[in-house]
Amino acid sequence: MLWKQTDYSGWGRVHKAHGEVARPERGAHLARLMQDRPAPAYGMLRSYNDSPLNDGGRAIDMTRMDKILAFDPETGVLEVEAGVQLGDLIRLFAPRGWIPAVVPGTGFPTVGGAIAHDIHGKNHHVLGSFGQHVLSVTLIQPGGKRVTASPQRGKALFRATMGGIGQTGVIVSARLQLIPTPGPSMRVKSTRVESFDEFLALLDASTFRYNVGWIDGTAKGGGLGRGILEEAELTDGPRAGRALPPITVPVDLPSFALSGPTVKAFNAAYWRKVPSQGNVHVMPIAQHVFPLDKLHDWNRLYGKRGFHQFQCVVPVAEAGALKEMVAKIARSGLASPLAVIKRMGDGRAGMLSFPMEGYTLAIDFPAREKAEMLIAELEAMTVEATGRLYLGKDALASGATIKAMYPEWEDWAKEAARADPDGVLITDMVRRLQLRDAT
Questions:
Q1: What is the model's pTM?
Q2: DSSP per-residue codes, 103-117
Q3: How far is C-alpha 119 from the geometric centre of its chain's CA atoms?
Q4: What CATH number is associated with residue 79?
Q5: 297-326 pLDDT, tens per residue?
Q6: Closest CA to 164 of 44, 51, 311, 21
Q7: Are 177 and 221 members of one domain?
Q8: Neighbours of 283 (CB within 10 A)
């Protein structure tokens, strides 16, 4: 297997890595790599931080291991290699009446990445996290040992793998339980929301299986937290029209492109795109669940220095703390156009899984010193509210902060040590947070 010197980075482009990378195409190739020169794996590099990076060391690019291994059209049970992209699963199986139970806001992440971060989507309050729909996962551990774990067999290993950021072995394949869909479309109801309090009330009262809110992070005063709520259901018709082709950002934009006045004007116009009485549209499933894919390479909007995304979840009882965060962001003048709020249930599959019952807020900031200072304040507010930061997004927190948010981290670290006693799967983020260090 040929190793090549490669430069790569997370989606936020703040953390970067250089090292030897191999791209196996078959399970036998991967097994030989893990026997002779074991290394951590990554997929499409859609984690925003240093989660998939191993600067100065070796890494395994899993994107060529993207085969469909088996599918039962009667039960919706699908077996795939880890490099299959989630968007391709919707494209291939929605016409056959099945889709993945949980997807994030982009279709580019791989199944392996979805497992490693136990991702959540717009329907978390109904169907929980991705890992809760994984029937079994097959790993190759350092030394070449092939192991399969499920909620019934090898439960501790399974729970350490779901959301386990790749530390229990390289994910080779997984068996997934898809959910039925009556058709290839979604009926989406859009509502213009006037304030933060109204937003939470609407999220709490929603009876839709999919809901997500966009917040104007620049609005203050009586308009604090205003935005657009989108609620949706799968539908069999009328058949949606074809989505417009995506636009690509061809170059890194200069810093002034997302200046405070520009973002404020854009957000105000975007908020008004939905009429006061709301509207309803039918659109292809992917068009609604993957809004980030309308603009390819959108991370270049933030320029060469990249961006941070702050994402937290706080318990329902701490909604006031989330409102204070939104107010602090608005006062800072640092908000970008991308700010999302969702209602979450309690579904989580792993020891380091992010979700908890409550509300999650995600917002991007250009990578600047002032933004990092603001994020530190937001992290402290999250700690005070007994919330969590998302390991798929965080690029700045300390190990002590993260460990306090994830009470099962020691159990997870023990399972990771059993699977990888020599620490050859440790990545930059695991080192930064000292997640595998003994207490």
A1: 0.96
A2: --S-S-SBHHHHHHT
A3: 5
A4: 3.30.465.10
A5: 999 999 999 999 999 999 999 999 999 999
A6: 51
A7: no
A8: 18
